[in-house]
Amino acid sequence: MEFRATIRVVGVNPYVLVSKRNAGRVKPGWRKPMPVVVRINGRPREGWRINMMPRGDGSFYLYLHGTVRNASGTKPGDRVSVRLVFDAAYRGGPAHPMPSWFRIPLSRNTKALSAWNALTPSRKKEVLRYFSALKSDEARSRNLSRALSALSGEPGRFMARSWTNAK
Predict the structure, then answer these.
(1) Is the pTM of this model over 0.70?
(2) 62, 76, 123, 156: which could form a disulfide with 119 (CB 3.0–4.6 Å)?
(3) Minimal CA–CA distance to 101: which of 158, 135, 147, 140?
């Protein structure tokens, strides 16, 4: 499915709005994050795999990763040609494994483990991605303490976000 659109910015994130009509042409009736392969102005050559995010009215935000913008030579304000294909091969779930330095203490804390199991898959993925970037033992220890505290229901900050009731 192809259409033309203008790259806009929400916050600091460049995106293209995919109308309800165009989203329906990609995958009729889809209401959750939609996995697609995108090309902007024919680039990147192999396409970029991403999830379009629903707006709640049937339309979607197609956030444009820097790799896509660099490959297509585009920037916010540019009118672009967008090509979308539903990514039927997409498999959700965490992209990063749970590190043992988190898995073992989490398994010993029943309240935190219960809260972890109740988190949405996208939140788990976000936490595990964050953990994968930690390099020092000190950073791991500090973040382990914050994570277990937040997941145990104690109010506080973890990952630049306020957590209340383990959410």
Answers:
(1) no
(2) 123
(3) 140
